[in-house]
């Protein structure tokens, strides 16, 4: 009875271990769940995975599972969570996909899901409906597909971290037309392709990384303008790839087969040196 007034569970940066009690769902005023950098483990209880099970779903403001061993799928976060402004599960054991219902969360500002190697699927286009998002971090995950053009509706977006994923397709400059507050953008270590006129129309952010690594990955078609590395931050470290042209059927190999390399011949034998004659 003495805990009915608890509004925040904060064990961040502590050595608290074990699993999360299921009866936390019975706390009518609980609105912040801060578990980051703790030693909690186990599967997320149902009341976290489905906020409709919260007695106070409309008051939940923050769920932070960063750097824990918590497993299970991401919270579904139904539209009942009208106050939720942050969902973070980076560097945890969370898996599954990003629920499209996140786009219904009108107060959502921060989505931090980086370094989740078992997070798969695609980036939900519905995220573009959560107009208040200013921090979207999805790097180092198994997310694939293209970058949804609907993200261009995130007018308040400041940080867009998409590097080290499995994204493909082209990078349309129209995506960034209304992202006037965007300052940090990374999409390196993907499989993005396209030509420079579209890519270089991206606004000059404070930091921008489109670099090519490893191979094959982001490909920008040649030629590059001579001064491009000096005039646009997105082009720093950027290389280009000439589009391949396939020979007609039945054509001989572009390069004739080379004879096998033989080991070098041993040096000719040398006569032993003749000792100098001794005087009589």
| Shape call | flat
**Beta-strand content:** 15-25%
What is the H level of CATH, i.e. the homologous superfamily of one domain?
Ribonuclease Inhibitor
Q: Tell me, what is the CATH class of one domain?
A: Alpha Beta
What is the overall number of helices?
Answer: 3
Describe the main β-sheet briefly. Answer: 9 strands, parallel
Low-confidence stretches: 243-247, 250-262
CATH architecture of one domain: Alpha-Beta Horseshoe
Whole-number average pLDDT? 76
- Overall helicity: under 10%
Side-by-side strand order of the widest sheet: 1-3-5-7-9-10-12-14-16
CATH topology of one domain: Leucine-rich repeat, LRR (right-handed beta-alpha superhelix)
Q: H/E series, N to C?
A: EEEEHEEEEEEEEEEEHEEH
Tell me the radius of gyration. Answer: 29 Å
What structural class do helix, strand and pairing data support? mainly beta
Topology, number of strands: 17
Amino- and carboxy-terminal Cα gap: 121 Å
């Amino acid at each position: 009875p003495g805990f009915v007034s608890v509004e925040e569970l904060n064990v961040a940066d502590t050595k608290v271990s074990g699993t999360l009690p299921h009866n936390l769902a019975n706390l009518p005023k609980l609105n912040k769940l801060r578990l980051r950098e703790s030693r909690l483990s186990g599967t997320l209880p149902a009341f976290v995975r489905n906020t409709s099970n919260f007695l106070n779903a409309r008051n939940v403001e923050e769920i932070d599972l960063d750097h824990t061993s918590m497993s299970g799928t991401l919270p579904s976060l139904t539209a009942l969570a009208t106050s939720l402004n942050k969902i973070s599960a980076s560097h945890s054991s969370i898996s599954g996909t990003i629920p499209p219902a996140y786009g219904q969360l009108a107060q959502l500002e921060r989505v931090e899901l980086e370094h989740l190697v078992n997070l798969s699927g695609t980036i939900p286009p519905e995220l573009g409906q959560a107009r208040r998002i200013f921090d979207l971090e999805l790097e180092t995950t198994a997310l694939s597909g293209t970058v949804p053009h609907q993200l261009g509706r995130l007018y308040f977006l400041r940080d867009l971290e998409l590097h080290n994923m499995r994204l493909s397709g082209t990078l349309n400059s129209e995506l960034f037309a209304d992202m006037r507050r965007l300052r940090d953008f990374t999409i390196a270590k993907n499989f993005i392709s396209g030509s420079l006129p579209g890519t270089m129309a991206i606004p000059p952010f404070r930091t921008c990384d489109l670099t090519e690594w490893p191979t094959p990955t982001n490909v920008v078609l040649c030629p590059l303008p001579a001064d491009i590395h000096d005039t646009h931050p997105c082009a720093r470290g950027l290389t280009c790839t000439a589009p391949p042209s396939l020979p007609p059927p039945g054509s001989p190999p572009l390069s004739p087969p080379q004879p096998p390399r033989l080991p070098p011949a041993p040096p000719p034998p040398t006569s032993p040196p003749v000792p100098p004659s001794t005087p009589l």
